[in-house]
Amino acid sequence: MATIRNEDLIQSVADAFQYISYYHPADYIRGLAKAYEREQSAAARDAMAQILINSRMSAEGHRPICQDTGIAIAFVRVGMDVRWEGGMTLQQMVDEGVRRAYTDKDNPLRASVLADPDGKRKSTGDNTPAVVHVELVPGDKLDVIVAAKGGGSENKSKFAMMLPSDSIVDWVLSVVPTMGADWCPPGILSLGIGGTPEKAMLLAKWGMMDPIDIQDLIARGPKSRAEELRLELYDKVNALGIGAQGLGGLTTVLDVKVNDYPTHAASKPVALLPNCAATRHQHFVLDGSGPAVFTPPDLSDWPKLALDFKTSRRVNLDTLTKADLATWKSGETLLLSGKLLTGRDAAHKRMVDMMARGEKLPVDFTNRFIYYVGPVNAVREEAVGPAGPTTSSRMDKFVEPMLAKTGLIGMVGKSERGPVAIESIKKHAAAYCIAVGGAAYLVSKAIKKARVVAFEDLGMEAIHEFEVVDMPVTVAVDAGGNAVHKTGPAEWRAKIGKIPVVVA
User: Fold this and answer.
1) Structure confidence by residue, pLDDT tens digits, 264-278
2) Mapped to the 3 state alphabet, what secondary structure does 404-449 carry?
3) Where are the domains of the chain?
4) Which of 81, 115, 276, 428 allows an S-S link to 140, with CB 3.0 to 4.6 Å?
5) Tens of pLDDT along 456-497?
6) pTM confidence score
7) Which of these is catalytic: 281, 348, 428, 485?
8) Among this protein's residues, is 348 annotated catalytic?
9) If you classify domain 313-488 with CATH, what class do you get?
């Protein structure tokens, strides 16, 4: 019978969340590196190269892979013979570990968790409480998996109560294109099938913690219906041509996971959860001998890559005009230098409300670009912490008032824009560019200075002014309304040729 000290679990949880903030699982790096080698789309290869280089930089610098350091999740299997030393509940112990990890002075993580979710939405300050799932199992050990899930991928979770005769493959192929690139592919899709609605979702979440092993499965062949479904979906989802960052290419998913559970005769609940390019999870076991020890991965696991910006156009943001934007083409790569404003959900909502009341904005946006970002706090010599783009579609409803009333001429974010935003961009001859989601530390190295210029009370959502040098971006929507997230996947879906292209 093992006796586990409260402090051992607390410190193990804290160390694990720090560890996964800057170390990708080795199986993800190997899987992405192989996909990079196979990829034929230049845009997708560039995106994957940035993700791999960012990952190695984070491993070396012990700074977050992604600025969205996630909501903290813990799956805890408690041996029924375990005894505890200390008076804390399991939730309290996990929360204290999360608190230590997210407020670590050497590597502070972004506190993205907000209380009062349909009201004031105020940050809890330390990313607590965690979401804790508990299961009692035989034995005298504590088996724990911690994971950090970002909002971009979590927001693309799908669920359906299907009829027993409905096709899961057809459903998945219908919903994955609607997910776009917000979940930062290439990543993992995990399905939970059966049980009840909440059981299916939990099965899918558990499944995405398993190692990437689809190539092993391809080599040996399937032995169950679940494995047959994995192979069919892996082939057909990749044939959609969505590609890395939604730019079009051969690899959209590195693996597909399927887990099932017996269900009611009248039901077939199905959950589909994506795991993004910032795949972060860690497993450990406590047996009463002390806290878990995490061995750093070998840097030889990462391929040695270099970015090539020879064909990228250099842009001076400080002298940029709409006439300059008119020469940009969708899919073109740029290197931005100069002053770049930031703002995301809360800042946009506040500005639009101020304009509706006739109030003057605290920042002049004339001929300026805005970057949709909520950076991690800086440490030591950093101008800013990891500062990758957030999902741009959340700001779609603000695009028209911002372009029409503020003098703003362009935006930088992540993934595609909706039809309303694209129409507004075209109407105002503006432009929208993307940075690579999952390359936050790499992007931050292009930011040489940073200061808060408005709405300081919003914390990481405050408006900053960055001074950037050669920040790599791709023109996603040009002044003519041409969108690379439409043309890229369509082109590669046609090239792959396994699923007929549907012409709208």
Assistant:
1) 999 999 999 999 988
2) HHCCCCEEEEECCCCHHHHHHHHHCCCEEEECCCCCHHHHHCCEEE
3) 1-150+280-289+298-308, 151-277, 313-488
4) 81
5) 999 889 999 999 999 999 999 999 999 999 999 999 999 998
6) 0.94
7) 348
8) yes
9) alpha beta
